[in-house]
């Protein structure tokens, strides 16, 4: 009798242990639901064709998912869900994908095989859907009208002005955006934190925000997590209030953990508190500038740290009051004082200040401001600069489509200058390689002097693309510092609630497959502005270019 009792006790303990091991946390259950929901949205023929309101189907399944206790129960919920959608026919066209040259670093459906999450029956169903996936026109995604291959999100319900307390819609916000990135963001493989981990990290934040501001900050943090300078987030009243509506009247650059004043939004107002270019601000309200940057970095978008620092213009000094305490260094002496902050509109700042399109510097060196010239200006400028010993093309700005026209003057051969990866909508998550267009002309070199390209963290997207084109020139060198690392046509995304953001929509590489995203363009001579250079009012990058030319 005692042996029977001990045996039953042993069986009970083992059984409870197995059940315990089989249990899933709420985050795990919601994370797998996000993946299954997104997979079916873009892969299942009936769903991808738009025959279901897929948001509503998610809302219906949430209670079942939350109430499930074990892996087996959860898998059965998904199986019944899939069975209800409809039968899938064998896909005859899908085998053609085997003939395509794919860029596969983004592709990962290995979670389908996880025996820790799914039963074998569910895994086989998901594999069958993958093998017989939807082909043709999609309901929720299409190719953008520019025909370069980046996506356009379509037919999504906006839920404008939804109540942030609606848990279903908060989770939909996360699930929808996460899956767009999962399947159609060409640089997902480059994120600092694995995209699966981002999902697990963000679920509790979207599930249990402290208040509406916390919810909006969670959206911002999610977007920043893709590490893409194109991944901006149109500010909301809540995010603006978090950083503060009041600004100091000075521009600044972050160098070595300090904020160096580089210019003003309003000189007259800045003079009231005796702010000067070159002031080295070390602390703001008794906090180190570097500490403030680190605290807010998760809310500052950028492909790399150089761009993040440039995008920190609203994060260091802004606040909710009309004054702020600073500690700063001037002429090697330390000072501290309280300065005034203002609403930005009070500066009456002119964003569209025009500067010279081009000029001839001392030493017979041409200088072209690429942010100012248009295609119609190129022939006249190149004619006027034809006898200079060098031309400096300043691309620390946003050019106006002049790359191909200029390339015709500085090259003697027609060259490839980039390659592209773009999403295969018939095999979501996979990207197709494509050769890019060429630039330059075959024939005698029109401009025979040296050519120098200037770049820095403000060189982004079309600036970087322009640089890559002009780098194919015969006598070209690139000088400056790391560029923004966000190339490729932009796909704009309207999130749940009408929040607006974007992603780099196609992958841009050099012809030798060198990546540009996050890394930036190739640089021959690296030089960064120094604190002393800013104090002295120097453009050290331009000076380096002149020195190189003269040597």
Cα separation of the termini? 100 Å
Radius of gyration: 28 Å
Indicate the mean pLDDT: 94
Broad shape = flat
Sheet with most strands = 6 strands, antiparallel
Specify the structural class.
alpha+beta
What's the gist of this structure?
The chain has 551 residues and is of the alpha+beta class.
List keywords for this structure.
6-stranded mixed sheet, alpha+beta, 551 residues, flat
Describe the fold and architecture.
The structure is a single chain. The protein is α+β, with helices and mostly antiparallel strands and 551 residues long. The model is unreliable at 5-21 (pLDDT under 50). Strands 5, 6, 7, 8, 9 and 10 form a six-stranded antiparallel β-sheet that branches. The protein has a six-stranded mixed β-sheet with strand order 12-13-14-19-20-24, sandwiched between helices. It starts with a helix and ends with a helix. It is built from 18 helices and 24 strands. Helix 9 crosses helix 10 and helix 15 (403-410) packs parallel to helix 16.
């Amino acid at each position: 009798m005692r042996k029977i009792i001990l045996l039953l006790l042993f069986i009970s303990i083992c059984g409870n242990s197995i059940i315990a091991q089989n249990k899933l946390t709420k985050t795990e259950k919601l994370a797998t639901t996000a993946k299954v929901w997104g997979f079916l949205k873009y892969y299942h023929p009936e769903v991808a064709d738009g025959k279901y309101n897929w948001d509503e189907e998610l809302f219906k399944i949430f209670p079942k998912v939350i109430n499930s206790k074990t892996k087996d129960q959860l898998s059965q919920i998904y199986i019944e869900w899939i069975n209800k959608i409809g039968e899938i026919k064998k896909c005859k066209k899908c085998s053609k994908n085997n003939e395509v040259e794919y860029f596969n670093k983004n592709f990962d459906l290995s979670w389908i095989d996880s025996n820790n999450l799914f039963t074998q029956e569910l895994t086989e169903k998901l594999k069958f859907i993958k093998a017989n996936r939807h082909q043709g026109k999609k309901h929720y995604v299409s190719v953008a009208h520019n025909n370069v291959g980046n996506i356009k999100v379509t037919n999504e319900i906006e839920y404008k002005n939804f109540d942030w307390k609606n848990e279903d819609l908060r989770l939909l916000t996360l699930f929808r955006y996460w899956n767009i990135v999962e399947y159609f963001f060409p640089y997902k493989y480059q994120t600092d934190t694995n995209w699966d981990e981002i999902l697990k990290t963000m679920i509790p934040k979207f599930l249990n925000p402290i208040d509406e501001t916390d919810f909006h900050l969670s959206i911002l943090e999610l977007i920043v997590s893709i590490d893409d300078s194109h991944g901006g987030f149109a500010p909301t009243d809540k995010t603006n209030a978090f950083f503060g509506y009041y600004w100091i009247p000075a521009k600044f650059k972050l160098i070595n953990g300090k904020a160096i004043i580089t210019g003003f939004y309003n000189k007259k107002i800045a003079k009231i508190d005796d702010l000067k270019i070159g002031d080295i601000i070390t602390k703001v309200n008794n906090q180190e500038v570097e500490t403030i940057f680190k605290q807010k970095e998760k809310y500052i978008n950028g492909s790399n740290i150089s761009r993040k620092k440039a995008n920190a213009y609203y994060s260091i000094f802004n606040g909710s009051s009309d004054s702020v305490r600073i500690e700063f260094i001037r002429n090697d002496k330390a000072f501290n004082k309280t300065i005034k902050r203002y609403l930005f509109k009070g500066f009456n700042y002119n964003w569209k200040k025009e500067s010279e399109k081009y000029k001839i510097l001392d030493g017979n060196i041409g200088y072209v401001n690429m942010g100012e010239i248009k295609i119609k200006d190129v022939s006249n400028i190149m004619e006027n600069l034809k006898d200079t010993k060098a031309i400096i093309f300043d691309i620390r700005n946003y050019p106006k489509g002049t790359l191909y026209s200029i390339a015709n003057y500085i090259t003697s051969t027609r060259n490839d200058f980039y390659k592209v990866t773009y999403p295969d909508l018939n095999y979501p998550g996979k990207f197709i390689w494509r050769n890019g267009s060429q630039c330059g002309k075959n024939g005698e070199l029109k401009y025979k002097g040296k050519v120098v390209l200037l770049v820095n963290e403000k060189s982004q997207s079309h600036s970087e693309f322009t640089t890559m084109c002009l780098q194919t020139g015969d006598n070209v060198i690139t000088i400056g510092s790391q560029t923004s690392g966000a190339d490729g046509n932009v796909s704009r995304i309207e999130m749940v609630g009408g929040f607006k953001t974007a992603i780099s929509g196609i992958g841009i590489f050099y012809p030798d497959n060198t990546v540009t995203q996050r890394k930036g363009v190739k640089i021959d001579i690296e030089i960064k502005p120094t604190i002393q250079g800013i104090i002295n009012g120097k453009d050290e990058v331009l000076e380096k270019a002149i020195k190189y030319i003269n040597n």
